[in-house]
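Write out the 3D structure for:
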Amino acid sequence: MCSSDLEKETLERLKKDLKDKRLVIVVGAGVTLNATTDASGKPLPRLTWTGLIRNGLDYLVSAGYELASNRRVKYAYEALDDSDPASLLDAAGIMANQMTKHGQFPTWLESVFGSLHQEVRYRSLLEALRALHREGATLLTTNYDDLLEWACDLQRIGRSNQDDILKFKRGDLDGVFHVHGSYHDPHEVVLDNTQYYQVTHADEVQNVLQTFLEYRTIVFVGCGSGLEDPNFGALLKWASERHGNIPNRHCLLIRDGDDLNHKMLVRLKYGPDYSDLANYLQCLLDE
């Protein structure tokens, strides 16, 4: 857990940032997957990236909006078996376009995420994030669900309200900032390349993220491969070039066996299993 000297030094720095209200936590899909794993310890299929897109395609086919033999739908299904991120984004784009075409996007999102809080089996990680927020941490998420708002009793902050974004950046408005949208705001949900382009060119959103990269300390929790998406990938590249001669201070929490890496992020190993993550975060709260 909190072991090596370098790790202890980093944790002490993060504790100070928390105390000084400078700590920003970016919550990724791993947190939702951890909190909602089934009795056998497996994630809910619809909450993984490929599982979500497959669920959408199945929804369209089973409800009779599309035929599985449709050329684009068939291609989307096949693309889900390809590990190439570009192919997965193509599949997501096809699914999202067909959902919008048939006016089913909001209804489908509701079916996936609407009652998700009822499927939470393990609350320890959400409770750790709630405690960190109460001590001064700022919360952002790339997730579409509202588990953080539910667990932390916070409001949702979306990308469409520029005044709310400005207040959030200044610290005048508390809540969970949804970088890639929320199922409550279907028009803000980022799934495909076009939507990623829109968010990477949204000045207010990029200004918030760049400000935090410049003046705060960010800890990525449960993010994993999400750091490679077109939004955060570009942001981290920008920060790497800008901070090339400055020691890294932003952190990525990973399991002991993970090989995830980014040249501007300090890797902190929290243990062999996802279940160790909550206890590791507790280190930031322990005196």
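Residues 85-101 form the longest helix (17 residues).
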